[in-house]
Amino acid sequence: MNDLVEDVLDAKDVIDNAVSHTYNSIRDKITELFGSTADQYLENRPLWRTNYLILRKAG
After folding, report:
1. For residue range 4-54, what is the model confidence (pLDDT) as tens digits?
2. Where are the chain's structural domains?
3. Which of 1, 14, 34, 44 has the fewest C-beta atoms lying within 10 Å of its C-beta?
4. pTM score > 0.90 for this model?
């Protein structure tokens, strides 16, 4: 039973690392493309969405 728990925890660590790596890769790409920190972009995402919807209705 302990082996099963250890295997599950190991699998969770692998998944956590993959998610973290993916997030960091996306953040770095956004920073590269837009010249601002991706964290700042992601924090402002609701504002970007609101502005997009306003522009879409106006267009």
Report:
1. 889 999 999 999 999 989 988 887 887 787 776 656 666 667 777 777 778
2. 2-58
3. 1
4. no
